[in-house]
Design a protein that fits this description.
By secondary structure, the chain is α/β, with parallel strands linked by helices. Helix content is about 45%, strand content about 20%. The chain has 2 domains: about 190 residues, Periplasmic binding protein-like II (D-Maltodextrin-Binding Protein, domain 2, 3-Layer(aba) Sandwich); about 90 residues, Periplasmic binding protein-like II (D-Maltodextrin-Binding Protein, domain 2), CATH 3.40.190.
């Protein structure tokens, strides 16, 4: 009996020791949130935040991707946790059953994306039967199709080529194209070759926005990392807005010349813009999503009944509260 009591006592002591060791051992830190983005002014804030050390140590890992398509493929394969992308791309990956939430609106195109053509063409209707190009799997493809639709035309009325934005200037200069849907600093290259604007995104104002999406599985596991990311974004925007016009921009993924050129026609959304959009049960953002889905259906990009990304404005609210308490 005494031996049995000694055995139970030893077991209890062993269990107590294990519990004590486990409770005193340091918790394994949350892994950093891996965020992908390509070269665009509305996305570069995240890279600038990294160089300015605006994120807590080892909390955010930024990855540059060459194109939005590669970025979408990465988030579908779960090799990244979050991504900056166009709303139309976010809808596309959601349609492919990638479960993501929109946590920020980063920017809107108010003329940054445009259709440029040879000077002899004066309107979109003049492009009938002509060789044109756009990245058909990106915003410029959407914009080009909308421009055709507005002018009572369709893809059947033009000779459309799906071409990478980065080589359009070269092909236009070689006279292989009559018009291009183009954006960013490559747009300036085509304009320098004498191309004239026939249409731009300001004519479909509010339809083209860029968003930050996060995989819902990651949100469930590491919500604090999402807040870390947004806090860094807010702090960096505040820093940029405090700069004088003569001050250097923080180092990001883009060089200053390309950033300034690409930023023309882009509205960078502030935290206040986001808060206003997230109000009234996200009605403002939901309206933009509904417009994009309907046009996507009409243009054959999106199937009927697609489930759009969820909208989560609560992470921005939490980030602002954290900054207010610092």
């Amino acid at each position: 009996m005494i031996k049995l009591m000694k055995f139970y006592l030893q077991v209890m002591i062993s269990v107590l020791c294990v519990f004590t060791i486990n409770s005193c051992a340091p918790k394994h830190p949350d892994p950093p949130i891996t965020v992908a983005a390509n070269l665009w002014p509305g996305y570069d804030t995240f890279f600038m935040a990294e160089t300015l050390n605006m994120y807590p140590e080892n909390s955010v890992h930024m990855v540059e991707t060459p194109r939005s398509l590669a970025l979408a493929q990465a988030i579908r394969g779960a090799s990244i946790d979050a991504a900056a992308m166009s709303l139309s791309r976010a809808i596309e990956i959601s349609e492919k059953e990638v479960d993501v939430s929109i946590v920020l609106v980063l920017d809107s195109s108010e003329g940054a994306d445009a259709i440029l053509a040879k000077p002899e063409y004066k309107s979109i209707k003049d492009l009938k039967g002509k060789r044109v190009a756009a990245e058909m799997d990106s915003i410029t493809g959407y914009m080009f199709l909308r421009a055709l639709e507005i002018n009572g035309m369709s893809l059947d009325d033009v000779i459309m080529n799906s071409i990478d934005n980065r080589i359009m200037a070269e092909l236009y200069e070689a006279e292989e194209l009559d018009a291009v849907g183009i954006y960013g600093y490559d747009r300036a290259k085509v304009a320098e070759l004498g191309a004239v604007k026939l249409f731009d995104s300001s004519e479909i104002s509010g339809e083209i926005i860029d968003v930050l999406v996060v995989r819902n599985k990651y949100i469930e596991q590491y919500p604090n990392r999402v807040v870390d990311l947004i806090v860094g974004w807010i702090k960096t925007l505040n820093y940029i807005n405090s700069l004088k016009s003569s001050d250097d921009l923080p180092i990001g993924a883009m060089n200053r010349e390309d950033y300034v050129a690409a930023k023309n026609g882009v509205k960078i959304w502030s935290p206040t813009d986001n808060i206003n959009a997230f109000e009234n049960n996200h009605s403002s953002i939901q309206s933009i999503i509904d417009i994009n889905i309907q046009h996507g259906i009409d243009l054959g990009f999106v199937r009927e009944g697609v489930k759009p990304p969820s909208i989560r404005g609560d992470f921005l609210t939490t980030a602002l509260k954290r900054l207010g308490s610092d």
